[in-house]
Amino acid sequence: xxxxxxxxxxxxxxxxxxxxxxxxxxxxxxxxxxxxxxxxxxxxxxxxxxxxxxxxxxxxxxxxxxxxxxxxxxxxxxxxxxxxxxxxxxxxxxxxxxxxxxxxxxxxxxxxxxxxxxxxxxxxxxxxxxxxxxxxxxxxxxxxxxxxxxxxxxxxxxxxxxxxxxxxxxxxxxxxxxxxxxxxxxxxxxxxxxxxxxxxxxxxxxxxxxxxxxxxxxxxxxxxxxxxxxxxxxxxxxxxxxxxxxxxxxxxxxxxxxxxxxxxxxxxxxxxxxxxxxxxxxxxxxxxxxxxxxxxxxxxxxxxxxxxxxxxxxxxxxxxxxxxxxxxxxxxxxxxxxxxxxxxxxxxxxxxxxxxxxxxxxxxxxxxxxxxxxxxxxxxxxxxxxxxxxxxxxxxxxxxxxxxxxxxxxxxxxxxxxxxxxxxxxxxxxxxxxxxx
Length: 437
Description:
The protein is mainly beta. The chain has helices spanning 2-18, 90-94, 255-260, and strands at 25-27, 35-45, 56-59, 62-65, 70-71, 79-80, 85-87, 120-128, 138-146, 168-169, 172-176, 178-187, 195-201, 219-231, 234-241, 263-270, 282-284, 289-292, 321-330, 335-343, 352-358, 376-380, 385-393, 408-409, 412-420, 425-436. Strands 5, 6, 8, 9, 12, 13, 14, 15, 16, 17 and 18 form an eleven-stranded mixed β-sheet that branches. It is globular. The chain crosses the membrane at residues 7-27. Keywords: Membrane, Transmembrane, Transmembrane helix.
């Protein structure tokens, strides 16, 4: 079955590439930005669990993917679904049957009050250490979710969360909203086992948005849904900001102020600090990367939806905002490409995927990191919920030499996203993408 599935994927890509110009639609962007041709293909459904950006990396001549969730979760239950698959090609890895995924060795959760890993994690981006000539040293950027039950507030350290006026969770009034933060794990054996290195960035208790003002049924606050890319001496992090931009106070709460500090934001850390990241990262403050890892930075303004266009704070069940970025360097366009979902209702509900471009290769110079084009609609499915969009390499273009992945691509790619039609909750590909200069 695996061989048949892999062969079908490769044939589908080759067949459709022949008819690019007879069956596609063109996304026209501003004159100074690329255009995108989207070609429908036979729907491919990924056969394992995904609820995050698809983390992937080339280790030697093998392409590796790391979907899934791991760890404790008092709302949804514990999970051991963070597994990996390998293949000689991209299609071989994506075509792996669920039963053939391998469970890596991951650090155990520790009890509340002890240092270590708390809550559940999802790998969202992987950086391969270029200094390691063996190619075996990897750093995984993980999305981490906790609750007052798994990370209770500690008066001495100021870490953790107070179970007071906590907003409602995804499974009803009896459950709590999660808080997301972003951490780093390291592997020195090509992803077979991982050691937790600590938290990259987080929002702490004073910035949580509580009842009665938080009614979106998503997060109480925090930083999450990341995508990370290396540039120069730094690892640049793109993430969703869900916290209040300052100290939250019920009496003085202002939804407009909340909106000003939210959307897709950026932080960075020196590559030399990845082994000991705690307290080392800096967030963007409007002029540079100057804000501490747990401070209130400023989001990418061009990615914010104006209030007059329905934009608003993430704690509102009716506000619109972009979230879940997936960023890649495009070798054909010579620019950065970002995909994102658009929330238009409670619990991140939205039926569309958007795209944005940044032509500045050096994200560390001046305000280059903030110069993203206004997002344009890429795909939409009425009656569905779409999230975690990403671009994946075409099988014929990706190999161990160019190392194409979701972080580095060429002129052609495949579009993937999570697709919920109220009956299924699949990770699917239904389009090929061609970029046009």
